[in-house]
């Protein structure tokens, strides 16, 4: 995204491309929207991956009935659509403080969501580690390595 924008600007500055200022502003907005959309979709997909892993661990026996191919496709399409729409709104109203607060709020929400899910998964792994080690008769020296696996 940034590389395309930089190349576009260099071509304009050196006279290789000649365009009206209104078209240049429009192209700049489109490139900004693509960059913003990729950031929003990347954060969203990181959240979706965390949710998928959570379902895999806590609902392992029902995972394939919960996460069907149709739900996966709908989820991916929804993330792309929401990212495109939200980035268009963000770029259109980028001077608004409300938009900036929404973007910061979205980032913090995704961060907290991922932290909570991964901490919960790690706690379950530690619980299983302690359960397994308490069933073993002699304490083993591999406990530190097992914690890495958790």
Concise account of the structure shown:
The protein has about 150 residues and is mainly alpha-helical. The protein is built from six helices and no strands. It starts with a helix and ends with a helix.
Description:
With about 150 residues, the protein is an all-alpha fold. It has one domain (about 1-125). It has six helices and no strands. It has helices spanning about 1-15, 20-60, 65, 70-90, 95-135, 145-150. It is elongated, with a radius of gyration of 23 Å. The mean pLDDT is about 85. Its main location: membrane. It holds the Pfam family 7tm_1.
Number of helices: 6
**Annotation, overall tally of beta strands:** 0
Terminal CA distance reads 38 Å
Q: In which range does the helix fraction lie?
A: over 70%
Average pLDDT value? 83
Structural class: mainly alpha
Main sheet, how many strands, which sense, barrel? none
* Spatial shape: elongated
User: What's the Cα radius of gyration?
Assistant: 23 Å
Can you tell me the number of structural domains?
Answer: 1
**H/E series:** HHHHHH
Strand content: under 5%
Low-confidence segments: none
């Amino acid at each position: 995204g940034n590389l395309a924008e930089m190349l576009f600007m260099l071509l304009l500055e050196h006279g290789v491309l000649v365009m009206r200022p209104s078209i240049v502003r429009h192209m700049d907005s489109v490139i900004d929207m693509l960059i913003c959309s990729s950031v929003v979709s990347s954060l969203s997909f990181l959240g979706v991956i965390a949710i998928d892993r959570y379902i895999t661990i806590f609902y392992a026996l029902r995972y394939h009935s919960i996460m069907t191919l149709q739900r996966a496709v709908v989820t991916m399409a929804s993330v792309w659509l929401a990212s495109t729409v939200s980035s268009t709104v963000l770029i259109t109203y980028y001077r608004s403080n409300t938009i900036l607060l929404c973007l910061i709020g979205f980032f913090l929400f995704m961060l907290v969501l991922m932290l909570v899910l991964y901490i919960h998964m790690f706690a379950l792994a530690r619980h299983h580690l302690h359960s397994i080690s308490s069933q073993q008769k002699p304490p083993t020296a591999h406990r530190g390595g097992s914690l890495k696996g958790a």
